[in-house]
Write a structure and sequence with these properties.
Elements: E1 3-6, E2 17-20, E3 29-33, H1 38-58, E4 62-67, E5 70-76, H2 82-87, H3 97-107, E6 116-120, H4 126-133, E7 137-142, H5 147-155, E8 162-166, E9 175-180, E10 183-188, H6 211-225, E11 231-236, E12 239-245, H7 250-266, H8 270-273, H9 283-294, H10 300-304, H11 319-326, E13 332-336, H12 344-350, E14 354-359, H13 366-375, E15 379-382
Helix pairs in contact: 1-6, 3-4, 4-5, 7-12
């Protein structure tokens, strides 16, 4: 089949809509469940490229949680400690490496991952399917599914959950085209992948780049390649912890991503882990309540709802408590899809534990940016590769 009709395009009034192969060949995707929409397929095809490349680079099962054509989270399948299992709400689950990858990808920013489209690098096993089944999600794309896993996923949302199988051997043409306002654009596909040699041009005084940090920089590199620009990515222990996408200002990308990284770390504070939730409160409501609990600008109206969420009203963390806890976030890797034009991004990143940085280099203020990195003892690599994605 080389064409697939869709209910509508990006919005319900955009009809007709379909996806098809220009050359008449078969589509590389097979619909196993549900009825995918236009945005589902944009998310799915972008997310699949990310996890396929991440698996190729690291050799580990990989997962991505996509929303609106950018990753809310991406990760490789490293084991989770007890704290992460608790804040990701998987402390009751048996996790395969692939399931661990998705738990990490989803857990990076659970608020933004609500209603996500999932991409998985490997054949979906029962452990991963059970994890997906209990989250609010729109669909999943993977190279295959174990029979029991497929049965679970095709029953989700009363059979409306989108389940896509992609041909893992499919390679897109070297040239890609898109149409905007009746004008056709054509360019060479971005096939450039990341390699350890991309991080050998170290421009800071500190030139110590341990293997775990190198791996995290690679995770950031691959994630940025499929994130709407401008974008930056914070990574720790093989998973994104903050993605800042689609901002017009580089420092706003950093502030957004750093804020998400801060929230990820604050979720691990004992006061947050031990919030007295009522037993009937579900995971999405808990995510929203935790976000409110950690905000400095929560309104009285929002706080009034806490009586229905908690068995007793918790005392919010003070600014001093937050800062003291955030000071424990260290050895974070930061990637930027283009150069930092000013040192302000480095100063903000340092407050969120960043120690390892890559960017293409090439700004007229490179020296100022390097000096700021040296001020914090960071290790910075200039890759010479811009990673814009639109």
């Amino acid at each position: 089949m080389n064409s697939l009709s869709l209910r509508y395009g990006m919005n319900p009034h955009q009809t007709p809509a379909r996806v098809f192969m220009r050359d008449g060949s078969d589509l590389p995707i097979t619909v196993l469940g549900g009825s995918p929409g236009y945005i589902n397929l944009l998310d799915g095809l972008n997310a699949w490229q990310l996890v396929r490349e991440l698996k190729s680079v690291t050799g580990l099962p990989s997962a991505a949680s996509f929303k609106h054509v950018s990753p809310a989270g991406a990760a490789i399948g490293l084991p989770l400690d007890d704290t992460l299992r608790k804040i990701y709400f998987v402390d009751d689950a048996e996790l395969s490496p692939l399931a661990a990858a998705y738990a990490r990808a989803r857990g990076a920013d659970r608020l933004c991952s609500f209603g996500d489209f999932i991409a998985l690098s490997d054949v979906v096993d029962l452990s991963t399917a059970r994890l997906i089944a209990r989250e609010v999600s729109d669909g999943v794309i993977a190279p295959g599914y174990e029979p029991e896993a497929l049965q679970i996923l095709t029953q989700k949302k009363a059979g409306k959950y989108v389940v896509l199988q992609i041909d893992s051997t499919y390679e897109a043409p070297a040239s890609e085209m898109r149409e905007v306002f009746g004008v056709t654009f054509e360019q060479g596909r971005h096939v450039r992948s990341v390699a350890p040699s991309d991080f050998t041009h170290l421009v800071t005084r500190n030139q110590s780049l341990p293997l775990p940090a190198l791996r995290d920089l690679q995770v950031a590199w691959v994630t940025l390649k499929y994130t709407q620009s401008n974008s930056v990515c914070f990574v720790k222990d093989g998973q994104t912890i903050g993605v800042g996408a689609g901002q017009q200002s580089r420092v706003h990308c950093v502030r957004l991503a750093a804020h998400k990284a801060d929230l990820w770390w604050l979720r691990q504070h004992p006061k947050v882990i031990n919030l007295p939730f009522r037993p009937e409160i579900k995971r999405p409501e808990r995510d929203n309540a935790i976000d409110q609990f950690l905000r400095d600008d929560i309104t009285p109206r929002e706080k009034s709802a806490w009586t229905h969420i908690f068995t007793e009203l918790p005392q919010p963390l003070t600014g001093e408590e937050k800062r003291a806890w955030l000071d424990g976030l260290t050895d974070v890797a930061l990637g930027s899809d283009a150069f930092f034009p000013f040192s302000d991004s480095i100063h903000r990143a340092a407050a969120s534990g960043v120690r390892y940085v890559f960017e293409p280099g090439g700004s007229t203020r490179d020296a100022e940016v390097i000096a700021a990195a040296d001020e914090y003892g960071m290790v910075m690599a200039f890759t010479g590769v811009r990673l814009f994605h639109h």
